[in-house]
Amino acid sequence: MGTEDPYQQPSEREHLCQCRIEGASFRTIGRELGRDPGTLSREVGRNRRRSGTYWPEAAGRKARAGAFGAIAARGMPSWALALGSAWSWTAVAAVNCRPHAV
Question: Region Disordered: what ranges (predicted)?
């Protein structure tokens, strides 16, 4: 299982969600998808709703956003979220610069 694609496809995420609802173990799902059970466990752990259920839509959004999505999920400042993945230091300065009171 060491040659797996590091990115899960939306169909794999949906399958993982459905199997977890049905009570399947990570080991069983891993065999079906050709993925390591630990990878699946981490995927579910990172993308749970407050109710504790796996949320494949959120996982997909984070994956599409790349590293920025992972940072934003941990609580980035609002200016970083407003700029999205198209940020630059110049854009950050423009958002954060406010005229000083004299």
Answer: 31-55
